[in-house]
Design a protein that fits this description.
- The structure is a single chain.
- By secondary structure, the protein is α/β, with parallel strands linked by helices.
- It has 4 domains: about 15-80, Arc Repressor Mutant, subunit A (Orthogonal Bundle), CATH 1.10.10; about 90-130; about 135-210 and about 305-320, 3-Layer(aba) Sandwich (Rossmann fold), CATH 3.40.50.2300; about 215-300, 3-Layer(aba) Sandwich (Rossmann fold).
- Helix content is about 45%, strand content about 15%.
- It has helices spanning about 15-30, 40-50, 55-65, 90-105, 110-130, 140-155, 175-180, 190-200, 215-220, 235-250, 265-270, 285-290, 310-320; strands spanning about 70, 75-80, 135-140, 160-165, 185-190, 205-210, 210, 230-235, 255-260, 275-280, 295-300, 305.
- The strands form 4 sheets. It has a 4-stranded parallel β-sheet with strand order 4-3-5-6, with helices on both faces.
- The N and C termini lie far apart (about 55 Å).
- About 25% of the residues are buried.
Length: about 325
């Protein structure tokens, strides 16, 4: 029989089949059980560990479901050639994190068995909560909504539905259904107030995310001579203020900024001719650029890069039940 170092605590916090499954999984992920290795039969392993064969079968079924082994009648169970698991490089880093957590738990008076039970229960809890979470991302343009929704999906491994802001003004039955199913509705700081006004009675979590302009745009703005008067234009003056803050956070200093929003077209039309440089967010560029003279410089800020703080915020919201607005 294949030698496997497995230790079962019959009276431990974790069910016996979970202890068995997780230890076999560890052996596979660590490379101690190589692809193609044949596992003992349920009867053999049950006898060796002094546990019921049905408990072994249950553990094996879980491993099959997770894509780590395959079991065939008459041929037994073998480790898959390419298990759907964690890469070896990531696995090594995770071990370091786990070892550190075990040491910290020990300092708090929590033994390995209790820690394992708590860690397993917490992981399942997070998994169950995330499975229930459905995220909608709202933006003012289809392109912006799709781009940022895709970036969130990449970062969080979570399905995100993109919705355009104007579709919330008179939502179709399809949009109504999306809103009903969603647990979290996110947008950028530029649109959070509009979102609250469009969904005044919602019980859903509304989350404002910070975004930062594309690096190419920042380089172009950084090249503007110090002391130049620059007009920042967004959907509203408040949005332009957020633009100013994001530019200053990116290290843009020494420019004389004025702020305007396209929601005040007369004030905008008066301000544009007075500024040699006009910086417009990609949300409003189509309305602003036609107002410029040929001798004026225009820069469009492409806000399709999520701030790391935005990802952290979303991860914390998705991982807990408490509302965040």
């Amino acid at each position: 029989m294949l030698e496997m170092e497995i230790r079962i605590e019959p009276h431990g916090q974790l069910p016996v089949y979970v202890q068995l499954k997780e230890q076999i999984k560890f052996l596979i992920l660590s490379g101690e059980l190589e692809p193609g290795a044949r596992l003992p039969t349920a009867k053999q392993l049950g006898g060796f560990l002094h546990i019921n064969r049905n408990t072994v079968l249950k553990a094996y079924r879980e491993l099959v479901r997770e894509g780590l082994i395959e079991c065939r009648r008459g041929a037994g169970c073998t480790v898959l050639e390419q298990p759907a698991a964690i890469s070896q490089s990531v696995f090594g880093r995770l071990l370091a994190v786990i070892d550190d957590a075990i040491e910290q738990a020990s300092e708090l008076g929590v033994g390995p068995d209790d820690f394992a039970a708590l860690a397993y229960a917490r992981a399942k809890q997070r998994q169950d909560v995330q499975a229930k979470r459905r995220l909608i991302f709202v933006e003012c343009s289809p392109e912006g909504a799709d781009a940022l929704a895709h970036k969130i999906e990449e970062k969080l491994d979570l399905e995100v539905t993109a919705v355009v802001l104007r579709d919330l003004e008179q939502p179709t039955p399809e949009v109504e259904e999306l809103l009903q199913d969603a647990e979290v509705i996110a947008t950028t700081f530029f649109h959070i107030q509009e979102l609250r006004e469009l969904l005044p009675k919602t019980k859903k979590q509304l989350v404002a995310l910070s975004v930062k302009p594309h690096l190419d745009s920042l380089v172009e703005i950084a090249g503007i001579p110090q002391g130049t008067t620059v007009l920042l234009v967004c959907l509203s003056e408040s949005g332009a203020s957020d633009m100013k803050r994001s530019l200053e956070d990116a290290g843009i200093k020494g420019l004389d900024f004025s702020l305007r929003g396209v929601d005040e077209p007369e004030r905008l039309a008066e301000a544009v001719p007075e500024h040699p440089v006009v910086v417009a967010s990609d949300y409003v560029a189509g309305e602003v650029l036609p107002l410029l003279r040929p001798d004026q410089t225009s820069i469009v800020l492409d806000y399709t890069t999520l701030d790391e703080g935005a990802i952290y915020l979303l991860r914390s919201v998705i991982g807990k039940e408490a509302p965040v607005t």
